[in-house]
Design brief:
Blueprint (H helix, E strand, L loop, with lengths): L7 E5 L3 E7 L8 E8 L15 E4 L2 E4 L6 H22 L6 E4 L2 H9 L3 H6 E5 L8 H10 L1
Parallel strand pairs: 1-6, 6-7
Antiparallel strand pairs: 1-2, 2-3, 4-5
Helix pairs in contact: 1-2
C-alpha cells in the first residue's frame, strides 16, 4: 500500500491508539508518532461484582441472562472515541489521506462511527493488530498490504 506524504496512519486496538504522520514519500514512508493513548481496562471478571443472573427450579440453576462483558464494552467505547477524534481532525482539515490499521473487531466498531468526512479521506484499512509492533514493523506491514 502506498502511503502518501503527510498522510495520517492510525494504528489501534480496543486499548491502545497511535497516530502517525508520514513525513516520507509514498515509496519511502517515514512514520512519525503524533499521538499515543492507552486505556486502562481491567479484565472483565475484575469489573464485575455479581454472578450472572439465573433462573431455575428443582435444584437446577441455568444461566438465562446474557452476561455483560464490561471489558469489551470499554474497548468498544474506546474505538468510538477514536472515531470521534478522527472526525474532529477531518473537520479541521488536519489530514487529506487516512489509513487505519486495527484488528477486525475494533475495525468493525470504528466503521460504525465513521463520519462522512473521515470516510472521504480514508484510503485504506488493514485488519491486523499492530499496536505492539515497532514503527519499522508497521511500515513493513503497510508496504506489504
Amino acid at each position: 500500500m502506498q502511503i502518501p506524504n503527510n498522510a495520517v496512519v492510525m494504528v489501534a486496538d480496543g486499548r491502545k491508539l497511535l497516530f502517525f504522520r508520514n513525513e516520507g514519500d509514498a515509496a519511502f514512508p517515514n512514520l512519525v508518532v503524533e499521538t499515543a493513548e492507552a486505556l486502562i481496562n481491567p479484565k472483565d471478571g475484575n469489573q464485575k461484582s455479581d454472578a450472572p443472573g439465573s433462573t431455575g427450579g428443582g435444584g437446577s440453576l441455568r444461566n438465562s441472562f446474557a452476561e455483560t462483558d464490561y471489558h469489551q464494552q470499554e474497548e468498544d467505547r474506546f474505538a468510538a472515541g477514536a472515531a470521534d477524534m478522527l472526525k474532529n481532525r477531518a473537520l479541521t482539515n488536519d489530514f487529506e489521506s487516512l489509513i487505519i490499521v486495527a484488528p477486525p473487531h475494533t475495525l468493525g466498531e470504528l466503521r460504525k462511527h465513521y463520519h462522512d468526512e473521515v470516510s472521504k479521506r480514508l484510503i485504506g484499512e488493514i485488519d491486523k493488530d499492530l499496536t505492539g509492533h515497532s514503527v519499522p514493523e508497521i511500515e513493513k506491514a503497510l508496504a506489504k498490504a
